[in-house]
Design a protein that fits this description.
The protein has about 170 residues and is α/β, with parallel strands linked by helices. Helix 1 crosses helix 2.
Length: about 170
């Protein structure tokens, strides 16, 4: 299985710019691994960060195994299979980047954001993919985050929006 990436070239460049600028031992949490292309891009852009990537893998053990094997060359990536809300209740690690690319509709999206953004360090980045007309809840939640006063928009390229946590 090839490590596909469902992002435009410009989105990948923005992703690599953000991750490449992180300090050593920064923690990245990606919700929505899919085929592992974005995790690979992040690992290549900064081998000094730690990347945790979670996906249901559509309850497909074979896909999980293939993605894990394909990403195994990157010692800084941990692939986790499960439901981001139910299966990781013991997570207690602060994160520098939260990349949401799994849930694109409420209530799942807002539930993920409430849960995982709570671990985001002050000055950390929240990346939201698929900010477009096909997924209006992504834009609606970005607007809510901005209006809360806790986040500012850093940059939007195509359907990838980068927010910075102010608190």
């Amino acid at each position: 299985m090839e490590l596909k990436i469902m992002m435009t070239d410009d989105e990948v460049l923005l992703l690599k710019k953000i991750i490449g600028g992180l300090s050593k031992d920064s923690i990245i949490l990606e919700i929505g691994t899919a085929w592992g292309g974005s995790a690979k891009a992040m690992a290549e852009s900064n081998p000094l960060v730690k990347i945790f990537t979670i996906d249901l893998f559509e309850d497909n053990t074979k896909m999980y195994t293939e993605v894990s094997n394909n990403l195994s060359e990157f010692s800084n990536i941990t692939v986790m299979c499960g439901n981001a809300m139910r299966d990781f209740s013991d997570w207690n690690t602060d994160i520098d980047v939260y990349f949401e690319d799994a849930a694109h509709k409420d209530p799942s999206l807002v539930t993920n954001l409430i849960r995982w953004a709570s671990f985001l360090k002050p000055g950390g980045f929240l990346l939201m993919h698929d900010h477009n007309d096909f997924f209006p809840d992504v834009g609606k939640n970005i607007d809510k985050l901005i209006s809360s006063g806790k986040f500012t928009i850093v940059e939007t390229v195509d359907s990838l929006t980068v927010l910075k946590h102010k608190e």
